[in-house]
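# step 3/5: fold
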Amino acid sequence: MTKKPVVPKEYLIPFILVTTLFALWGFANDITNPMVKVFSKILDMSAFEGSLVQAAFYGGYCFMALPAAIFITRFSYRAGILTGLTLYAVGCLLFIPASITLSFAPFLACFFIMTCGLSFLETSANPYIMSMGEDETATRRLNLAQAFNPMGALTGMFVAKTFIMSKIDSRTQEERAALPEAEIEAIVQSDLAILRAPYVTLGIVVLVVLVVFAIVKLPVHQRDKSGGLQLGATFGRLFKNMRWIGGVVAQAFYVGAQIMCWTFIIHYGTEVFMAEGMAEQEAESLSQNFNIAAMCLFLTSRFVCTFLLKFFTPGKLLTVLALGGMATILGTIYLEGRAGIYCLVATSGCMALMFPTIYGIALEGLKEDAKLGSAGLIMAIGGGCLMPPLQGAIIDSSGVNVSFYLPFICFVVIAIYGFLCRKPRLQAS
């Protein structure tokens, strides 16, 4: 029996080009996670108020996923990619006028526009990658492409730490409050200019990538030629497919868990390290180092898990890793000092497989329904919109350790979905 390649030769160049998009949205996600803490400090806000960054950022995914899928179904994957890159660049460049206002709301609008673009990119790129070869290797192919997402994420974390967190004013809120109002405004203006620069640079990079995609000819897949848009019939089939419905639910909880773990590791670590006697800015910087370590583990685990999919069904491996995530989160909640943050870092190793595997399981066998099916899974990224503010509110009221019961619940849901999908196919019912 001939072994089927994960990426056939005729799709190799398009696969490489589209895979660069995975790194681009990984960068956007993980330069933004630390901004919850950064905005809270610059604009003197609570953890809940700062977490509205995530509500705006992931709200764009939820809002735009279905319109993006309809657009892609009407036109093509390539058209969706070009539209997504345009919105992404515009959102980044709007940081210039937003920083002049010295207020929070314009930045939230920038994040929202950025992720409307990212929604187009993810709704296009994920099913496009899955279509570049045999259905039997689709989940492995998507895991391979998604393995490059953490590379962009690591770069985003490094930029956030090196060019934003380490450069903004180091005075505490109490020290700032004692200053004259004009001096406080000058500090805020300076800090927002520091925050603005990496996003504007990112916008320029995205514009360059947009030009490349506009010039290069991508193959038109058969699904791009499928023609008519039949929303009623397609959604009728999707809502009878329990594998897809379960995937949407599991994906919402997964994204919520991921964003909570990567956003609030800085809050968690800052408390731990300040209890050891560190100054606040030093504690925040060290916490971001642990966040980078978590992403390095995530990246390594993604490649390892992609290899393990040769030997285990996606559902079985997903179940095992979700159980591992539950265990590490319990350590985060109950262990004191650095042991807790080590457990939180270890959680990233368990999360590495989850997004692309849930995605692949849910879309398996959908064929012409994959574009709208993909939209449901991208809308599920809205879990990153709702859960971080809830965790921020719990941190404000009950403390950071207790707040990690939310990611624990998320991993329980994922474990159940993985167990139900442990066989190669979960038949629609």
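# step 4/5: annotate
Residues 9-420 form a domain with the Growth Hormone; Chain: A; fold (CATH 1.20.1250.20).
# step 5/5: archive (pending)
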